[in-house]
Write a structure and sequence with these properties.
CATH architecture of the domain at 9-173 and 260-287 and 323-339: 3-Layer(aba) Sandwich
Number of helices: 12
Structural class: alpha/beta
Order of helices and strands: EHEHEHHEHEEHHHEEEHEEHEEHH
Shape: globular
CATH superfamily of the domain at 9-173 and 260-287 and 323-339: NAD(P)-binding Rossmann-like Domain
Largest sheet: 6 strands, parallel
Distance between the termini: 29 Å
């Protein structure tokens, strides 16, 4: 591709986890023609607005990182919103990019597109080889449609669109809203709140809620946030209460396995693919390694400094039992992740604390 430092590059979803990481990497590498619009400036679900934007701005390259995203609870609660909004966003942007002369578009998908019981590690060709995980099928179906739209526009119109399938992501700029977040940011916030609750740190709780949104009532009750104990007094409820230890209750059995990738590593992969990959075949991006939810929870607990009990509500869903990606395709292009999971979680938690304290904005 002829992408240059002065190329006009539109990053759709630049305030989100992935989009903000892509913007950071582009700026670090000296790209100066970035185009960004917040949702209040441009509603990507509105076809007329999207077409007007592309007609006026005429970007050369597009990173399509905008999406409605969330964890198991959000997908289950807002099924119609997830499938509608994601279909509208990607349809409007991909079509406008083709119609207004974009040279190349990179579409961000998700590893949730693969069958629930796919053979591990998951190869790109396993797409549409089995039933989807029911708890996130609405989002997955929308993303599959985006992949197929990119492939169809390439075949019919010779439009250069490539699709990237990242594994579970985390990092600076993540969503810590406990109603809509994914597993790792939810764990970080829950353990942070539990730590503050056992310290009787009411001011810390209030700052956290101000920065990252309301704390669900069931969690407020579990941590006695409205009747905070004094420092050292154990006031939480649950299966561990008999031992006098504070408790964090997590969904499922804890046996499900997840692969996690720091979003800065994904951003490097996206730039590599934008600069040098031209095929309709989708590309997995991950670490090739996974951990159980129990292992992940213990790691987060240790990093946060929560010294209580972790238990599991086995009546709640685990989601896909295992999901680790085969990354041989992108590895053959010279990419490899550089941020280890423990270091990445520490980095994310440090950023989280800075946001709560007001030292940085909650947009990375």
């Amino acid at each position: 591709m002829n992408i240059t430092k002065k190329s006009r590059i539109y990053v759709a979803g630049h305030r989100g986890l992935v989009g903000s990481a892509i913007v950071r990497r582009l700026m670090d590498k000296g790209y100066c023609g970035l185009i960004c619009r917040a949702h209040k400036e441009l509603d990507l679900t509105d076809q007329t607005s999207v077409n007007s934007f592309f007609k006026e701005e005429r970007p050369d390259y597009v990173f399509l990182a905008a999406a409605r995203v969330g964890g198991i609870l959000a997908n289950d609660t807002f099924a119609a919103d997830f499938i509608r909004d994601n279909l509208l966003i990607q349809t409007n942007v991909i079509d406008a990019a083709y119609r207004f002369g974009v040279k190349k578009l990179l579409f961000l998908g998700s590893s949730c597109i693969y069958p629930k019981l796919a053979q591990q590690p998951i190869k790109e060709e396993y797409l549409l080889g089995g039933y989807l995980e029911p708890t996130n099928q609405w989002y997955a179906i929308a993303k599959i449609a985006g992949i197929k739209m990119c492939q169809a526009y390439r075949r019919q119109y010779n439009f250069n669109a490539v699709s990237v399938m990242p594994t579970n992501l985390y990092g600076l700029g993540d969503n810590f809203d406990l109603e809509t977040s994914h597993v790792l940011p939810a764990l970080i916030r829950k353990f942070h709140l539990a730590k503050l609750a056992t310290e009787g740190n009411k001011a810390g709780i209030e700052k956290d809620e101000e920065r990252f949104g309301p704390i669900p009532q069931d969690l407020r009750a579990a941590f006695n946030l409205d009747l905070l104990p004094s420092a050292g007094d154990q006031g939480t409820k649950g299966a561990c209460s008999a031992s006098g230890m504070p408790e964090v209750v997590l969904w499922g059995t804890g046996t499900a396995r997840r692969e996690l990738l720091h979003v800065d590593d994904l951003a490097d992969a996206c730039l590599l693919l934008m600069e040098g990959y031209d095929s309709e075949e989708i590309v997995n991006v991950g670490t090739g390694e996974d951990v159980t939810i129990k292992q992940l929870a213990q790691m987060v607990s240790d990093i946060v400094g929560f010294h209580g009990c972790i238990s599991y509500d086995k009546g709640k869903p685990d989601g896909t039992p295992q999901k680790v990606l085969d990354t041989s395709r992108i590895s053959s292009l010279g990419w490899a992740p550089h941020i280890g999971l423990e270091d990445g979680i520490k980095d994310t938690y440090e950023w989280y604390q800075k946001v709560v304290s007001g030292n940085v904005d909650n947009q990375a």
